[in-house]
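Predict the assembly for these four chains.
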Amino acid sequence: MSEIRLLRDAVAQLIHDGDIVAFEGFTHLIPFAAAHEVIRQGITDLTLVRMTPDVIYDQLIGAGLVKKLVFSWGGNPGVGSLHRFRDAVENGWPRPLEIDEHSHAGMANRYVAGASGLPFAVLRGYRGTDLVERTNTVSTIACPFTGEELAAVAALNPDVTVIHAQQADRDGNVQLWGLTGVQKEAALAAKRVLVTVEEIVDRLTLRPGGVVLPSWVVTAVAEVPGGAHPSYATGYSIRDNDFYQAWDRISRDRQTFTGWVDDHILRTEEASAR
Amino acid sequence: MSEIRLLRDAVAQLIHDGDIVAFEGFTHLIPFAAAHEVIRQGITDLTLVRMTPDVIYDQLIGAGLVKKLVFSWGGNPGVGSLHRFRDAVENGWPRPLEIDEHSHAGMANRYVAGASGLPFAVLRGYRGTDLVERTNTVSTIACPFTGEELAAVAALNPDVTVIHAQQADRDGNVQLWGLTGVQKEAALAAKRVLVTVEEIVDRLTLRPGGVVLPSWVVTAVAEVPGGAHPSYATGYSIRDNDFYQAWDRISRDRQTFTGWVDDHILRTEEASAR
Amino acid sequence: MSDWTNDELMTVSAARALSAARTCFVGIGLPSTAANLARRTSRPDLVLIYESGALGSKPTRLPLSIGDGELAETADAVVSVPEMFNYWLQGGRIDVGFLGAAQLDRHANINTTVVDRGPGRPEGRLPGAGGAPEIAANCGEVLIVLRHSTRNFVDRLDFTTSVGHGAGNGDRRRLGLRGRGPVAVITDLGILRPAPDTAELVLTDLHPGVTVEQARAATGWPLKTADAVGVTAPPTDAELAALRGLKAA
Amino acid sequence: MSDWTNDELMTVSAARALSAARTCFVGIGLPSTAANLARRTSRPDLVLIYESGALGSKPTRLPLSIGDGELAETADAVVSVPEMFNYWLQGGRIDVGFLGAAQLDRHANINTTVVDRGPGRPEGRLPGAGGAPEIAANCGEVLIVLRHSTRNFVDRLDFTTSVGHGAGNGDRRRLGLRGRGPVAVITDLGILRPAPDTAELVLTDLHPGVTVEQARAATGWPLKTADAVGVTAPPTDAELAALRGLKAA
């Protein structure tokens, strides 16, 4: 059964140096507050997994905490490049970044395999592309009935998956709704699951499109209102598109980025007490 | 885009002699009315696919319309045997019945593969059982990453899938809710899709747990209130457990069964006009 | 103490066997009765999972089928059948799977598919596999409930639908089955458990008043007994009241 | 007729190319603008599908990202990302996929992963594949929109992210790719289409006032032209008004 904890304590207890961690949320419900807590605690040498690294991983990469990135689309959605990601890949700043690169369909199926207790998944993908030459987690497999050759991708089973949801009840049952992305699969594929929520309510009311994670598959819940900002939580906030656009300028320069992290993450102790 | 039709016309146009047809609905939302229309029209030599044949297939089998059955659990749920199914398998009455028999997990994954445009699916199943010796749609496959051997099942792609849902709108978009079983997969795996609904509404309101099939993946919709009886439609009716229990007596004897079909299906022309 | 039947003690014993379970994959019939009884007695927080897609059902009366409406209406969440089998069962998330059987052998392998009715006669048809092969493979452990008779407890299965311990200890690992497999077979005469070294079922408990000879006579193989055969505690008044209340509802 | 830019005609032409589509898998940026324009002009019933999980979105303004809330709120249904890629895209249900590119070669293969910046310099990093490889593989057909320059239209890709027509005609079939692949590349200078025999892109249409020489100069391979090169119809007032309305919203 999940326990309701302070974000600071939950991050300290669930995420460790060297872990494989997936912070998921497809544009919606991205768990920024939890990532900022990781930066404050300086948890490092992480292998980060995420379909769309987005600004959340640009921040973790720029902060020097990331050894390896497993992903499928590394841009600032609707804006352009992720400058910290590029700087790490192209110039090794602040440290070299190993990458394992896939397509969205491949990543989604890697999580599906992980959630399903299977070592791999099968899809129609990757054929004819150069992606297969740069990863050892894509292979081919022949259909035993038709002989047709298909792609196989290795399962993803993170040490920890972190997601943000709208609500949990006092027993730690969680509900998210709106665009629910790949969060159920990412959570069920992981050894430990941390969920930050907009609010804790007495009783969950099932919503149209709602995805429920029962308490017994969640390790810890932390109440962090606004914990997805600058991403958003349907029913609670809207996407801060201005921030995403501003990030292009903030992140372009190493010093500006470092100053922003100092001012907006490291020197916000009160946030960490939530 | 789906067309809204009379059940009689939709069945005549979509289902043909010799077709592979899946009438799905896991205990809930079983499309009995459509099956009765198939009996009235005498559409025959069918290969029927369904996880739980249930009373609906007992009726079609007893009526002599079924050449082959693809299934995973052939009982009268909570009651006992399906007598017409047993009589066909054991004694070839009213005609021999070929079977392709699986586990639930295997059948569910066969539909998933069909819906996903894949020739097969992979699961942890069948190992050590005698099921594999009686079917040519189960095989083994080795994980290209770990070498582990797993089960592979062949995709199911019915010519027609028939389901019952609570509502459609006037454009033919469909919504079902409650226990939604394997209906989405069965529908998306099929070449043609027929949906009977409790009612046609001006506008669908998304429900908690609701599954929507957009009009453009549905071939035809027919309004058939009560079309799942003796199964049920959450929000509209409850399961007629008394009928399921009565079926044990009705179906045990060939003549009683035939009389029942005459009285309750063949001589109900007015139902057929819906 | 009220009067009670051995059938009632079988169900009560099955419910008691869930005392350490958090989540239980429930088939209809005796398993459903036992799991719902556990929720009303020792395990009020037991999470009931039905293969029809209901996670965390809290039915107020015994469902006739695994698809009764109340299972969905009282659930924490309803998922599709493929998701249930792939993410929840195969994902290794369910502590206990509860199975019945038509035939059971000494290694707790199960047949629910066909029975041999002798030369010149067609096989007798049973319902088939349903969810059982993968419940047996993937749950943390498996409980089996069935009435004790030589018809059910057979020397050799006519068909292996679901694997218990295969040909004996180590066979599950060899087959790649990840759960521990059957840990107890609960009958109307007593309880059988696999021996640690051979995984052969031995009689470990008898219901009050039942003799070893009765159990042996109802078993189709030479039934071994544990060094010390225990006696099942009779149903408490609370257990009996809860069970009878369930059946009457 | 109002003044208009070639960029506007590129988007208008892309919207027109959807005239026979029922369903369109939409990436963000130019494809999203074009698909939303089509819904406001010739194809009001066009079903927009976003990889974030929204089926049948009807946004009132252009989304900045594929995850904007309005895409879900106005959708006929929202599904998980794995379901979107497996059941809807890979299931072969989407008529048209709309892609952009960083580099495109003569067989309409696409690079969005890395660019070679010359000896001694590290590869330039692009966002990567996203949904594109499987959109290119599995949609009924593919439309590509991008600005015409020798930087984008290259003789040889630095990396193949998504397959258009591979090494030429028949290559898609050989690779087991089930959709027809790219049927048009719409630029700010005109339209290129694969030749039926070789699947090499040839110039079939020019925007008004653009010359073949301009198109050739902006293409990194010796661009062939169709026997008769057409001229794109200029944007109608209705198209322009709709496009500008979209951008202003």
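The first strand of chain A starts at residue 3 and ends at 4. Chain A has a mean pLDDT of 96.
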